[in-house]
Amino acid sequence: MTQPADSRLFGFVLVALAILIGFVVTASNMRTCVGVTERKFVFKACFIVWLVVFGLLGFMYWLQPPYRYILLIPYLVVLPRMIYRFALQRQEIRQQELDERRLKAERSRSKT
Q1: What pTM did the predictor assign?
Q2: How many domains does the chain have?
Q3: In terms of DSSP H, where are the helices of the chain?
Q4: Per residue in 53-107, pLDDT tens?
């Protein structure tokens, strides 16, 4: 069974729009990093999320219809949880880096 060209075009446009928005969000996350450790973590987290997203897209293209839809169930459960965990870890890293900066500033003030 083939799909009409309009629905395929609509699907490609939606996927392209989602990827574009994802790149904007990734760039925004990288730009708002405070320190080096946070930047490294955000880069790794974004890379892992992009691997998962492109892996799902590849499997959705490759698998047959009943299995491609079953694959969405773990994706829709795992991806939001991953993003939430990454956000919590990023907050912890940011707080640690800010605490280290404050401590260094206090030490430099007490030396003078």
Answers
A1: 0.84
A2: 1
A3: 5-31, 36-62, 65-70, 72-111
A4: 999 989 988 999 899 889 999 999 999 999 999 999 999 999 999 999 999 999 9
Its domain, for residue 103, covers 5-111
What count of residues does the chain have? 112
User: Rounded distance, CA 4 to CA 44, Å?
Assistant: 39
In tens, the pLDDT along 25-34 reads 999 999 999 8
What are the Cα distances from residue 73, in Å, to 10, 22, 78?
Answer: 23, 21, 9
- In whole angstroms, how far apart are CA 16 and each of 45, 67, 79, 92? 21, 23, 19, 33
Q: Is-contact 34 93, C-beta < 8 A?
A: no
The token duo for 63 is 């698998």
Q: Which positions ≥6 away from 96 have C-beta within 8 Å?
A: 37
Residue written as token pair 């998962």: 52
For residues 29 and 26, what is the distance between their CA atoms, to the nearest angstrom? Answer: 5
Return the DSSP state at 34: -
